[in-house]
Amino acid sequence: MFNQERLMHYQVEPSWNYFMRLKTMEEDQMERIMRLVSQSAVVIFSISSCCMCHAMKSLFCGMGVNAMVHEVDEDPKGKEMERALM
What we know:
It is built from 3 helices and 2 strands. By secondary structure, the protein is mainly alpha-helical.
């Protein structure tokens, strides 16, 4: 009968006087990727045994580009990083 807008309010009690949201592994890796790409104008995410990755690194080097190369397969969290990059 009443045409009133109903608002839902939540009251949350903080634990230890602060709120903390747990990050997913993908969010954590994306933050790490963003940190890496902010450190250089050109960043190459590579797999050390990949012939196309090697060709790309050689091409950039031949053009005089000083790229930062991150070998994903040599990183302890490389699999998670690879998933985040896909």
